[in-house]
Input
Amino acid sequence: MKTLTTIKSIAAVALLACSTATLSHTDKPHSSKPAVVKKEQQAWGIAGDAKDAKRTIAISMSDNMRFSPDKIDVKQGETVKIVLTNTGKVLHELVIGTKKVLDDHAAQMVKFPNMEHDEPHMAHVSPGKKGEIVWTFNRPGEFDFACLIAGHYQAGMVGKISVVAAPGKAAALDNVVPQNLVTSISTTTATVSTPEMAEAEVRKVDKEAKKVTLKHGPIKSLDMPSMTMVFQVKDPALLDKLVAGDKVKISAEQQQGAYVLTGIEKLVAP
Ligand SMILES: [Cu+2]
Output
C-alpha cells in the first residue's frame, strides 16, 4: 500500500510537471479518423501511405524522457511505419523535423502552451497507448525527432534519423515542388480587405471533432507567428465548404485557453 502511494505521488509530480503540455496537445491517437490531408513536402520527407511501408520501426517512449531506440537509419525513398508505444504514465509525442524546426516549435510551445498540433509527421500517444506515423523519407540528410511537450524536449527527449542518399534518386526529387505558403501569403496580401484577418491554407478538416488544421501567416490579434496548428470551431457549419488545400482568410481568438476560429473566408483564385 505504501509503495502504491509512493508511485502515485511520483506520477502526480510527473503530471504536474507537464500539466500544461497535457492540455496543449491532442490526447487521441493520430490516425483515429482518416481525414483527408494534403501532403506537403518537408525538408525531412513527406507523408507516406501505409501500403507503401515495407518496414516497421518500433519506438517506445518513457517517462525517463527517452525514446528507445533513439537513433534510426533509413534509406532515401523508403516509406517507414513508425509504431510508437508510450510505456509511461504521461502523454508523450514524437515529432520529426530538422533541429531548427524542432527548436522553434519547442519555443512556441512554451509561449503558446495551449496550442494543438496535428500533422502527418507527428503523433501524440497517451499513456499505455500506441500511435503511428507513416513517413516517406525522400530527402537525404540527418534529421531529428523529439517530444516537444514542455519540459520533455528540454529534458533531452530527442532522437536522430539518418537518411542515406540513394544514388539516382536525386532526379526524381526535382519533380517534388516544395510548397512555400508563407512566401506566397506575403505576396498576396493586397487582396486582404480586413486587416485583422490572417491568411492561411487549409490542411485538414475534421467536422466531427469541430477542428480544422491551418497553415497560417502571422495572426496579429494573437501575437502569433506563422505556423501550422489546429483550431477549434464553435459551429461546424463554418467548415462546410472547406477542403484541404483551400486558401483562406481567418480570424481567431483565444477562448478559455483554446484557439478558436471565429471567421473564415475562402480566397478566390485570381
Ligand atoms: Cu514526452
Observations:
- The domain at 20-173 is CATH 2.60.40.420 (Immunoglobulin-like).
- The CA atoms of residues 138 and 171 lie 11 Å apart.
